[in-house]
Amino acid sequence: MSYEGWIILTASLVGLSCGIMGVFLILRRMAMMADAISHTVLLGIVSAYLITKELSGIYMLIGAIIAGLLTALLVQWFHSLGVQQDASIGVVFTTLFALGVILIATKVGNVHLDVQHALMGEITFVPWHTIELPLLGEIPQATFTLILVLLVVLVVILAFYKEWKITTFDAALAASIGIPVIGMHYLFMTLVSITTVASFDAVGAIMVVAMLITPAAAAYLWTDRLLVMLSLSASFGVISAIGGYYIAVWLDTSISGSMAFATGIIFLISFIGSPTHGLLSRFVKPFTTQSM
């Protein structure tokens, strides 16, 4: 595959995974948790490096997952003590992210763990960091990791689809019929953390947040059916990845930033043109009703 192809494929995998997880974040009214976890995983990555002195491998993933779960636990704890959820998220993610930045500045030294890389990512470097696999041959490491993450997300979502649906729309009903609501919540937070950290190094925090929230928000405007919403959100993520790449080439600018911008364009089109919740439909419906 060409250099360009690997970049588009990697970004599309991010769009697919984040698009699917983003639907549940939107429906559970936890959109800001995406922003929180995408930033606090930096603390997990830095901590894993300080312990292992390795810049890649399973330890980075474990550290980031722990940081994501710690974020969810602290937010839930503060909320249970009476702090508003949005305030809890703001306090926890800024504090943990700041701690990660301080550790980078004081402990990491010249190692390539910088805030600019964390925010914007280095998707242009993805095709150069490869691994050799049986049957598949040489493949970028980030691409292979994202393929595995997408498979995990799909398997877990499909295996517990009914449980996800009930706990998302009616947690009280789910608890009354014996579904472990708290367990499902933290399993979901684990999936969000895994998806975030797998995307983090390649595309950066800005694109991770954009891909987690904006395609799902756009899909929400088009349909009220969960399965259709999941499909639309994943599709919008892929379209944003492809369209954003060519916008970046056209403007000679940041690829990740352009892909995030493309998600905004898709949302704007959906906000205006959706036949059910779009801006135009609100003006058309009164005239249609009067003519009838």
From TrEMBL:
Compartment(s) where it occurs, according to its Swiss-Prot or TrEMBL record: Cell membrane
Domain of life: Bacteria
Principal location: membrane
Topological relation to the membrane, as annotated: Multi-pass membrane protein
Residue intervals passing through the bilayer: 6-27, 34-51, 57-75, 87-105, 142-161, 173-196, 202-222, 227-248, 254-273
UniProt cross-references to Pfam families, sorted A to Z: ABC-3
The protein's name: Iron ABC transporter
Protein's organism: Lederbergia galactosidilytica
